[in-house]
TrEMBL record:
It comes from the Bacteria. PANTHER family: LUCIFERASE-LIKE MONOOXYGENASE. It comes from Streptomyces avidinii. SUPFAM superfamilies: Bacterial luciferase-like. NCBIfam families: oxido_grp_1. This is Luciferase family oxidoreductase group 1. To bacterial alkanal monooxygenase alpha and beta chains. Residues 1-28 are annotated as: Disordered. Residues 38-343 form the Luciferase-like domain.
Length: 379
């Protein structure tokens, strides 16, 4: 573990830790759900639709999730993907905060290598000021895009940063959030605003996200909550969670590991309808992996697509890790996954062409678990 990582660990024990709202990390399972359920929103854009419509759907999903007992609603950072409109998580989260009042909102995640730590601290300090006690700051070390786009985001000379650069940037971000650079540090008189320099203030809990062992180990060593991207890297789920738990050291944030896994899941009134919807997401992923990204195709286009044997193998493998079907089938799949992985929380992402299908899926999942029904908060 580098000195930078140890530095981040020491920040977790700094004065003011009570303001970190660690109580928001551990969720509560509602109804017959075995673990808390949350939402991972990719703000997908289907063929024939617009980013405006997809962002409006995200508000509807957040309001439904809040009224039905989902614990949190996270937005993922992706770039240069026509079918995903979540390139600016902080902007979207501010919009969602204005239309909700209770549900936790966060990044799943901000790709830290793409941003200056001070900029992230100021963005999420602003979000915390807008929605006190409801903001999560999830961080990843991948670019969230292809190499050429990453170069455009980061500028020349930064694509080959060493692996240990992420812990250093994490430590820097943490110090900006806590406003506690030591005397003599070049940033000792630089303050993230909004932030502690203005007086006592809460700040969002940090999460590490990953699809490999690097972030799992780092999250464990720092005593931070960890979110694993099972929805696109299912083969590594169990090894990463095991590494996180074995590496875990208690901190003021957590006294025991807390692991969330992202899972693709879509419920519909019939298994055939669910299959038609998730096939659109699988074809979209195939095109992305083939260097042909685009809007999420319609169910009709996906059904008519002539898959080559190699493409069919990819799609079948992809769909094997998507929990889909009737509400009862989805409930069984989610329960099996939670039991097999020991995940403390499931974060469900519904990747489909239709915004209406995604919204209905979250409602059906809440129904099948008997989750509460409350009136959405007034705008």
């Amino acid at each position: 573990m580098s000195d930078a990582g140890d530095d981040a660990q020491s920040r977790s024990g700094a004065d003011g830790a009570a303001n970190r709202n660690a109580s928001g990390i551990r969720g509560t399972a509602h109804g017959r759900a075995t673990v808390p359920l949350s939402v991972l929103d990719l703000v997908t854009v289907g063929a024939g639709s617009t980013a405006h419509a997809s962002l409006r759907t995200s508000v509807e999903i957040a309001r439904l999730a809040e009224s039905r007992g989902y614990h949190r609603h996270w937005v993922a950072e992706h770039h240069s993907m026509p079918g995903v409109a979540s390139s600016s998580p902080a902007v979207i989260l501010a919009h969602l905060a204005a239309h909700t009042s209770r549900i936790r909102l966060g990044s799943g995640g901000v790709m830290l290598p793409n941003h200056a730590p001070l900029a992230v601290a100021e963005q999420f300090g602003t979000l915390e000021a807008l929605a006190p006690g409801r903001i999560d700051l999830g961080l990843g070390r991948a670019p969230g895009t292809d190499g050429r786009t990453a170069a455009a985001l980061r500028g020349p000379g930064r694509l080959d940063e060493a692996a240990d650069e992420f812990p250093r940037r994490l430590a820097e971000l943490t110090r900006f959030l806590d406003d506690d650079f030591p005397d003599g540090h070049p940033y000792a008189r630089v303050h993230a605003v909004p932030g502690p320099v203005q007086g006592p203030a809460g700040r969002p809990p940090l999460w590490l996200l990953g699809s490999s062992g690097f972030s799992a180990r780092l999250a464990g060593e720092l005593g931070l909550p960890f979110a694993y991207a099972h929805h696109f890297s299912a083969a590594g789920t169990l090894p990463a969670l095991d590494l996180y738990r074995r590496s875990f050291r208690p901190s003021v944030v957590l006294d025991a590991p807390y692991a969330v896994i992202g899972v693709s899941a879509l419920a519909a009134d019939t298994a055939e309808e669910a299959r038609a919807q998730v096939l659109t997401g699988a074809l979209s992923m195939l095109r992305l992996r083939s260097g042909r990204p685009g809007l999420i195709p319609t169910p009709e286009a996906a059904a008519a697509y002539a898959f080559s044997p190699l493409e069919r193998e990819f799609v079948d493998g992809w769909l094997a890790n998507v929990v889909h079907g009737t509400p009862d089938e989805v409930r069984a799949g989610l329960d099996e996954l939670a039991g097999r992985t020991g995940a403390d929380e499931l974060m469900v992402t519904a990747n489909a062409h239709s915004g209406a299908a995604r919204l209905r899926s979250y409602g059906l999942i809440a129904d099948v678990y008997g989750m509460p029904v409350e009136a959405p908060a007034a705008d």
